[in-house]
Write a structure and sequence with these properties.
Organism: Lynx canadensis
Shape: elongated
InterPro entries: ASCC2, ASCC2_CUE, CUE, UBA-like_sf
Structural class: mainly alpha
Protein name: Activating signal cointegrator 1 complex subunit 2
Number of strands: 7
Largest sheet: 3 strands, antiparallel
Oligomer: single chain
Number of helices: 26
GO molecular function: ubiquitin binding
GO biological process, one term: regulation of DNA-templated transcription
């Protein structure tokens, strides 16, 4: 007989009040045991014995209760889980207050570490059993009833799932993936809850921008009220407030990354709210401001600033990895796996997302460092033959333009911040940063290396001499060697060096040094002989690069045994080069021919006839290019003021002037009306016989205005009547 699921199982038991047998469902509040689960409290930050003892006592109660719960049979376990409110509050308190790996925590005592391991394991096994609907063939819950039990009794919700991912994802990823996947499969209503949670997640980014005094995007940006005080920027706010913002950002980014890494199917729900664009916009606005605020606080607690910088670098890396997970799950994986017949929609979404991010220069630059965009585009080109080359080229060009003005160094594999973690992933706390806070002096456009960001180049040369002189001008009794050691320890900050020397707050290593210590001159690593460069370097006579020189090729003075003729007759160089040019077929030996013997015909000889068209022309023989060319064109004339007056000459000049005036006043006859007919001039009309060309009525004809013909006297005066007769 097959076993019934727990939600349909009925059990018979004796009623304690009446003593009679009674049948009731297996999942009933009466089956719950009376047990009170105490709330969890985190371990003390300071290893004070009294606080440590209090923590250990409370943690022991919690661990024992959870071990008792895990030992219950299947039906008793589920009755306790469903109907015991103290159990749910205990589990919620652990998820809420247990230290994360990025939280501040001093190295705890060994007994505290052991207790944390025990609690961590017990809580994880409890949630794992709560997410399993079938433990064996005889002990199981029907899937539909299981989903209703989880959802209606709030055994799991989206905040709990997020905390589970960030706490147990390290080292338990396969089990956690099955666990959360089963929850969403058996109860799809959690997808709706995640969709309703997305505005709250996006509001977290808006709150960070609001507290930083930065302008948000879209509807999240609200105008500042008049009664509100001015919002401080990250550079102006107190250090503790800046610390809270950085820790809040680190917690948010790490939690979101852990959830999407464990359950990537949630990426579709994230993208429904345009999460990619909102994430890139937040990165572009907030990250540079927070970095700048940390770098400017050089005179404050360097240890705390170093820890904040490390956490901010970790947050940067997680934001970029979140974006990469979203792009992989939404666009790239469906195309590469060919899970859909129409992959063009996924390619279009990829291009659309990156097209909307082209103005986010800093984000594109950092993302391209960790996950090159060109590689993703190359994968799409291999998967689809109809990829829009114009848009892809435009996106790649925009990514390249984001690197303009920045030293593009290919980053190595970015690493997480150093952690103190056991193999089971129970405790993973960030160790405090030790050493000087020198890495904050890096340039604003530092490569995205996460917590492994490289240190800036050391100060040297003229800049180092200037820093030493700043300290020595105020404290002339100090030696340059001692000042240099202080500058190296305090990140080349002369103000901090002077302040610590005057207040006698130097580091122990510096206090033991001799204050009159001189500066040791370091030899130049590149001596003059090895660093010189000229045209004679490394030739056969360069004594600086070789020890032996062929003295037979060295001649001192003038060579007297040779003269010009002997040099010209020396054909040794020509003979030496003959064989080389024979390979190019440019050397032809002279072959003597006998009289009457001609060269043999070859098909490639030139046999076209010679063109003698212009041989008879004397080109240039009749050109007027003599020295007196300008003189021969115009004869010399005596100026008019120097001429001797001759009788009758003035009359001819007057007549010439009258003729010129008549020419100007005469009407112009169109050329199409003038034609030759014998010796006269006629006017071509439209009808009838041709008539003479006449001026206007009342004027005398001026023959000089018409073309002159042979036989016509130049002084002809013809009245109008004579021409008509």
């Amino acid at each position: 007989m097959p076993s019934l699921p727990l939600d349909q199982l009925q059990i018979t038991h004796t009623d304690l009040k009446t003593g009679k047998l009674r049948t009731s469902p297996a999942l009933h509040p009466e089956q719950k045991a009376d047990r009170y689960f105490v709330l969890y409290k985190p371990p003390p930050k300071d290893n004070i014995p009294a606080l440590v003892e209090e923590y250990l006592e409370r943690a022991t109660f919690v661990a024992n209760d959870l071990d008792w719960l895990l030992a219950l049979p299947h039906d008793k376990f589920w009755c306790q889980v469903i109907f015991d409110e103290t159990l749910q509050k205990c589990l919620d308190s652990y998820l809420r207050y247990v230290p994360r790996k990025f939280d501040e925590w001093v190295a705890p005592a060994p007994e505290v570490v052991d207790m944390q391991k025990r609690l961590h394991r017990s809580v994880f096994l409890t949630f794992l059993r709560m997410s399993t609907h079938k433990e064996s063939k005889d002990h199981f819950i029907s899937p539909s009833a299981f989903g209703e039990i989880l959802y209606n009794n709030f055994l799991f919700d989206i905040p709990k799932i997020l905390d589970l991912c960030v706490l147990f994802g390290k080292g338990n990823s396969p089990l956690l993936q099955k666990m959360i996947g089963n929850i969403f499969i058996q109860q799809p209503s959690y997808y709706n809850d995640l969709d309703e949670t997305m505005p709250t997640i996006l509001q977290v980014f808006s709150n960070i921008l609001q507290h930083c005094g930065l302008q948000g995007d879209g509807a999240s940006a609200t105008p500042q009220k008049l009664e509100e005080r001015g919002r401080l920027t990250p550079s102006d706010m107190p250090l503790l407030e800046l610390k809270d913002i950085v820790l809040y950002l680190c917690d948010t980014c790490t939690t979101l990354w852990a959830f999407l890494d464990i359950f990537p199917l949630a990426c579709q729900t994230f993208q429904k709210h345009d999460f990619c664009y909102r994430l890139a916009s937040f990165y572009e606005i907030a990250i540079p401001e927070l970095e700048s605020a940390i770098k400017k606080r050089r005179l404050e607690d360097s240890k705390l600033l170093g820890d904040l910088w490390q956490r901010l670098s970790h947050s940067r890396k997680k934001l970029l990895e979140i974006f990469h997970i979203l792009m992989n799950q939404i666009c790239l994986l469906p195309v590469l796996e060919n899970s859909c017949d129409n992959i063009q929609g996924f390619i279009e979404e990829f291009l659309q997302i990156f097209s909307s991010l082209l103005q986010e220069k800093r984000f594109l630059r950092d993302y391209d460092t960790l996950f090159p965009v060109a590689d993703d585009v190359s994968l799409l080109q291999q998967a689809s033959a109809v990829l829009d080359e114009t848009r892809t080229a435009y996106i790649l060009q925009a990514v390249e333009s984001a690197w303009e003005g920045v030293d593009r160094r290919k980053a190595t594999d970015a690493k997480d911040p150093p952690v103190a973690e056991d193999p089971n992933g129970v405790i993973a706390m960030v160790e405090p940063v030790s050493g000087p806070f020198s890495h904050l002096e890096n340039s604003e456009e530092e490569e995205c290396m996460g917590a492994a960001a490289p240190l800036g180049p050391p100060v040297c040369g003229v800049e180092l001499d200037s820093l030493i002189s700043q300290v020595k001008d105020l404290l002339p009794d100090l030696g340059e060697g001692f000042i240099l050691a202080c500058l190296e320890h305090y990140s080349y900050n002369p103000e901090q060096v002077i302040n610590n020397i005057l207040e006698e707050r130097l580091a122990p290593a510096l206090s033991q040094l001799d204050r009159s210590l001189d500066r040791q001159v370091k030899p130049d690593p590149t001596p003059l002989l090895t660093s010189r460069h000229n045209v004679f370097q490394n030739d056969e006579f360069d004594v600086f690069s070789r020890d032996t020189v062929d003295l037979s090729r060295v001649h001192k003075g003038r060579r007297k045994e040779e003269n010009t003729r002997s040099l010209l007759n020396d054909k040794r160089e020509v003979v030496a080069q003959r064989q080389r040019y024979e390979q190019y077929s440019v050397v032809v030996e002279e072959v003597p021919l006998q009289p009457g013997e001609g060269l043999p015909y070859r098909g490639d000889d030139y046999e076209d006839e010679y063109d003698d068209t212009y041989d008879g022309n004397q080109v240039g023989a009749n050109d007027a290019d003599s020295d007196d060319e300008l003189i021969s064109r115009r004869p010399f004339t005596i100026p008019q003021v120097l001429r001797t007056k001759v009788p009758g000459e003035g009359q001819e000049e007057d007549e010439d002037e009258e003729e010129e005036e008549a020419e100007d006043e005469a009407p112009k006859v169109p050329h199409w009306q003038v034609a030759d007919e014998g010796e006269g001039v006629v006017l071509k009309g439209r009808l009838g016989a041709p008539c003479p060309c006449l001026p206007a009525a009342g004027f005398q004809a001026a023959p000089a205005s018409l073309p002159r013909r042979r036989g016509a006297p130049s002084s002809l005066r013809c009245p109008l009547g004579e021409l008509l007769a």
